[in-house]
Automatic annotation (TrEMBL):
The keyword Transmembrane applies. Keywords: Membrane, Transmembrane, Transmembrane helix. This is Uncharacterized membrane protein YciS (DUF1049 family). The keyword Zinc-finger does not apply. One of its GO terms (cellular component) is membrane. InterPro entries: TM2 (IPR007829), TM2D1-3-like (IPR050932). The chain crosses the membrane at residues 27-45, 51-72. Its main location: membrane. It is a multi-pass membrane protein. Residues 24-70 form the TM2 domain. Pfam families: TM2. It is found in: Membrane.
Length: 101
């Protein structure tokens, strides 16, 4: 089924807006390597309160920083999914819920 032109433009505009705010896991990992104990990767992902806590505790004396390496990719996916849902809702585009097997 073909979508009307105005509908395709609305979807394209929403996708472009999402692409401009989506976070990249490679950047988050690079920030973790360089600024991990200061929470730079958390600032990048918008987790300001957790970033400040990492900053003032030096990443929980390194423990929190080491644990984060296992959770960065999942956190990036979560942040991006929320941003995408917000943008699509703002443009009136409802996406189906993912089916979990």
């Amino acid at each position: 089924m073909m979508l009307p032109e105005w509908e395709r433009l609305r979807i394209t505009r929403a996708e472009a807006e999402y692409a401009s705010v989506a976070k990249d896991a490679r950047v988050a990992f690079a920030l973790w390597v360089v600024t991990g104990v200061f929470g730079g990767h958390r600032f990048y992902l918008g987790d300001t309160a957790q970033s400040a806590a990492m900053l003032f505790t030096l990443g929980g004396l390194g423990v929190w920083t080491l644990a984060d390496v296992f959770f960065i990719r999942r956190r990036v996916r979560t942040v991006n999914a929320r941003r995408r849902a917000t943008i699509m809702a703002r443009h009136g585009i409802v996406e189906p819920e993912p089916v979990n097997p």
